[in-house]
UniProtKB/TrEMBL annotation:
Protein keywords: ATP-binding, Cell shape, Cytoplasm, Nucleotide-binding
Family: Belongs to the FtsA/MreB family.
MF (Gene Ontology): ATP binding
Protein origin, superkingdom: Bacteria
Chain segments annotated as transmembrane: none
Complex formation: Forms polymers.
Entry's Gene Ontology BP terms: cell morphogenesis; regulation of cell shape
PANTHER family, alphabetized: CELL SHAPE-DETERMINING PROTEIN MREB
Main function: Forms membrane-associated dynamic filaments that are essential for cell shape determination. Acts by regulating cell wall synthesis and cell elongation, and thus cell shape. A feedback loop between cell geometry and MreB localization may maintain elongated cell shape by targeting cell wall growth to regions of negative cell wall curvature.
Record localization: Cytoplasm
InterPro entries: ATPase_NBD (IPR043129), MreB (IPR004753), MreB_MamK-like (IPR056546)
Primary location: cytoplasm
The name this protein goes by in its record: Cell shape-determining protein MreB
Length: 353
């Protein structure tokens, strides 16, 4: 009876709580929000000035009393209060679209292998932001469901979800993760690699946004890439302190991010080494699927295919895979109950011990 009541007057929200971007799926409407995970705060008044796209525009351009904060670092909450404010903003935006007044039921994707404390922080932040009921799912599982991989079958599938703060590598079978690894090599690390490279090689300092733009424009990996692409980069000369412009090529970017890409490949090999032989045979036949923004790095599928000798595929619309997965789970949350991270509040004292 109560469930029917809540279905009429409440709404279900799926959240891909990413380090770089947060996506919100509203049941019955699809993905309604895709904005940067950035919050601008006025330190004089402790009030939120802007969230999402508006806040990202302020990074590196704010006066001293306004700070643009990224409340999630490497996939987990680093600033609880700001994360709560961001979630409240997202929930309120969803409520205006759904036109339902009761607090929502929320499903949030988190990186695999995060600690119980980190899971509880996500759950508490969502409840403080106004959620009626909070469920947690690991992002590689949500991404696999979002791209319609057969996760419930007794056969192995493998997914690599390359996000902004972390990369989740997971082997899935029978609605469970057989082996997985979470590494801090993802979009932000590659941006930092580009900043460090330009600092050392060209003696020029650039910001995070500029590094991101360069990575998207001419970034890539692999030996057989065309090295003719180039881009003009403006920053501060470290010697004179004055503005300076340099021209860099995609071979520069390839050299800058090569160590991190190599680290990512090693992590994938480690997961494969810990995978049972029968499932490994399934993966060799079905291939590995790339999801997340990092799946769009030019040349990465070919490099992985060459290194692993396994077919590599890019998921359709890889940036939204996790959010779409949360939406599918919300449509039949009872049927997907086994894949959710257990809410400790629902356990009996015996189970908790």
């Amino acid at each position: 009876m109560f469930e029917k009541f809540f279905n009429i007057f409440s709404h279900d929200i799926g959240v891909d709580l990413g380090t770089a971007n947060t996506l919100v799926y509203l049941r019955g409407h699809g993905i309604i929000i895709n904005e940067p995970s950035v919050v601008a705060v006025n330190q004089k008044t402790d009030r939120v000035v802007a969230v999402g796209n508006d806040a990202k525009q302020m990074i590196g351009r704010t006066p001293a009393h306004i700070v643009a904060i990224r409340p999630l670092v490497e996939g987990v909450i680093s600033d609880f209060e700001v994360t709560e404010e961001m979630l409240a903003y997202l929930f309120n935006k969803a409520r205006k679209i759904s036109k339902k007044m009761l607090p929502p039921r929320v499903l949030i994707g988190v990186p695999s292998n995060i600690t119980n404390v980190e899971v509880r922080a996500v759950r508490d932040a969502a409840k403080s932001a106004g959620a009626r009921e909070v469920h947690i799912v690991e992002e590689p599982m949500a991404a696999a469901i979002g791209i319609r991989l057969p996760v419930k079958e007794p056969a192995g599938t493998m997914i690599i979800d390359i996000g902004g703060g972390t990369t989740d590598i997971a082997v899935i079978s029978l609605s469970g993760i057989v082996s997985s690894k979470n590494v801090k090599v993802a979009g932000d690390r590659l941006n930092n690699d580009i900043i460090a490279y330009l600092k050392n090689e060209f003696k020029i300092l650039i910001g995070d946004r500029t590094a991101e733009d360069i990575k998207i424009a001419i970034g890539g990996v692999g030996e057989d890439r065309d090295d003719s692409a180039e881009s003009a980069v403006r920053g501060r000369d470290l010697i004179t302190g004055l503005p300076r412009e340099v021209v860099i090529t995609d071979s520069d970017i390839k050299e800058a991010i090569a160590p991190s890409v190599r680290q990512l490949i090693v992590a994938v090999k480690e997961v494969l080494e810990h995978t049972p032989p029968e499932i490994l045979g399934d993966i060799m036949k079905r291939g590995i699927v790339l999801a997340g923004g990092g799946a769009l790095i030019k040349g990465l599928p070919d490099l992985l295919r060459e290194e692993l000798k396994i077919p590599i595929f890019i998921a359709e619309d890889p940036l939204t895979a996790v959010a779409r997965g949360t939406g599918i789970i919300l449509e039949d949350i009872a049927g997907y109950r086994d894949i959710l991270i257990t809410n400790e509040d629902e356990l009996s004292p015996i189970q908790q011990s």
